[in-house]
Amino acid sequence: MLSKVLCIKESINLGRKKWDFLKGAEKYKYQLGGSEIRLYNCRVTIR
Questions:
Q1: Maximal C-alpha separation, the chain
Q2: If you ran DSSP here, which 8-state letter would residue 23 be given?
Q3: CA atoms 19, 22, 42, 35: torsion sign
Q4: Do the Cβ atoms of 19 and 11 come closer than 8 Å?
Q5: 0.85 surpassed by pTM
Q6: pLDDT tens string for the chain (47 positions)?
């Protein structure tokens, strides 16, 4: 958890407005004001 806190702090210092806790619907994410956003995956295969 400490690593997340330090990364969030650095993001704030850099002026970023959003933080992505990655996938998962853990309750704490919503308690901290999180909301769902639509994500897309794209895979490119070079032959």
A1: 45
A2: S
A3: negative
A4: yes
A5: no
A6: 688 778 888 988 999 988 887 888 888 778 877 888 888 888 899 98
